[in-house]
Amino acid sequence: MTKPHAPLYYPDYLQLDRLLDCQHLESADHGEIAHDEMLFIITHQAYELWFKQILWELDAVRALFKKQAVAEKAVGRAVSHLIRIVEIQRVIIGQIDVLETMTPLDFLDFRDYLIPASGFQSLQFRLLENKLGIRPAQRLSIDKTPYEARFAERDRVALKISEQEPSMFDLLDNWLGRTPFLHFGTFDFWDEYRQAVDVMLAKDRRLIEENPMFTPEKRAHQLKMLTATEAQFDALFDPDKYERLRQDGSFRLSHQALQAALLINLYRDEPILYLPFRLLSLLMDIDENFTKWRYRHALMVLRMIGRKIGTGGSSGHDYLRQTAEQHRVFTDLFSLSTFFIPRSALPDLPPHVRAAMGFQFSESSS
Ligand code: HEM
Predict the structure, then answer these.
(1) How far is the CA of 18 from the centre of ligand 1 (A)?
(2) Which among 95, 304, 320, 321 is the best mutation to test ligand 1's pocket, defined by most ligand atoms within 8 Å of the CB?
(3) Quick check: 103 and 140 in contact, CB under 8 A?
(4) Residue located nearest, by CA, to atom 19 of ligand 1
(5) pTM above 0.85, yes or no
(6) Which residue has the least CA distance to atom 21 on ligand 1?
């Protein structure tokens, strides 16, 4: 039997006394309340609450993927957590509209009181970046100082731990590397795929060479583009070349993991690959939504402070615009489309592989 306890009271359950008592206006301390400072604080606090929820979901996904073997059911659960993250991101991107009801002049009423505090010091945002898989070396720095230098000592510990734990990217890389379907009995996905690519590229070359509508210049141009495409496939099929691309940062996934991601995408209509396909797509959505947020935030900053430096000391808009390009994690999943081939050109799966990938139902299983 559960212990009797007093009926729960809504304000107590949500600790509203505490929550609604933490909006302290700096402008009030300086003698004149800036009306919009309340909106500024509440917007940031709402963001931090949503960051907390995103971290909660992301940690749950990482826990599922830390296991030696990730069961089918676990992939389904991970997909549900990731869907929730994507929905939260939609909300927090939209939230910028509310803050933009504050005009630059309204902001100037209290902006100087904030120096040197800045969103740059959002611990939860940095934890999110690290747990997703942004690497320290990839980060843009302000004044050549590492990002953690702008954090209090107590927060630096949490940042270090989050850098050392396996990120979502690392866990995905390992999981993809273990995909069983790359070699399945006599079926070797990579061999089959390579042959299909050769056939497709040879056909493309023939079409260009034999097209009577092309002028010599147009034909030469098309052939040059095809040669560039062939070179990209070359690098994909040659493990040494691929490794060099990894070293120079063009790719990040291991060769094995990249092959698995391709297989999942190309054969996503097979029932067993559908959830893994959803998982990859959601990770791309999350990456893309953070980029969208970064752009929206950068534009808002331009509108709010023009080309002034930020309260945290960065170049402001320029710094933020660059992070939108550079602070990305799952770019390999986006680049993968380069290597997609049409469904009609895909190698047929042999019956034993198809049977293993499908959902079987027979009288005996009912
Ligand atoms: C008037 C509104 C805002 C302005 C003018 C503004 C300005 C800036 C600037 C200039 C930076 C670059 C660092 C610096 O030099 O300070 C920055 C970074 C940042 N801001 Fe804002 N911000 C605003 C609202 C927000 C809101 C509502 C959030 C939500 C949490 C936020 C989160 C962040 C984060 C996470 C960073 C670090 C981005 C990175 O380094 O990649 N900012 N902000």
Answers:
(1) 25
(2) 320
(3) no
(4) 119
(5) yes
(6) 119
3-state SS assignment for residue 184: strand
pLDDT digits (tens, 9 = 90+) for 95-104: 999 999 999 9
What is the 170 CA–ligand 1 centroid distance (Å)? Answer: 28
Is residue 13 a part of any domain in this protein? Answer: no
- Residues sharing a CB contact under 8 Å with residue 33, sequence separation 6 or more, in sequence order: 25, 27
> Model confidence over 111-126: pLDDT tens digits?
999 999 999 999 999 9
- The boundaries of the domain holding residue 73 are 23-180+248-342
Question: What's 116's domain CATH number?
Answer: 1.20.58.480
Residue 59 lies in a domain: yes
Structural domain count, the chain: 1
Residue ranges around ligand 1 (CB below 6 Å): 43-44, 47, 99, 107, 118-120, 122, 125, 297, 300-301, 304-305, 310-314, 316, 319-320, 323, 327
In a domain, 197, yes or no: no
In this predicted structure, what is the pLDDT of residue 356?
78
* Residue 355: inside a domain: no
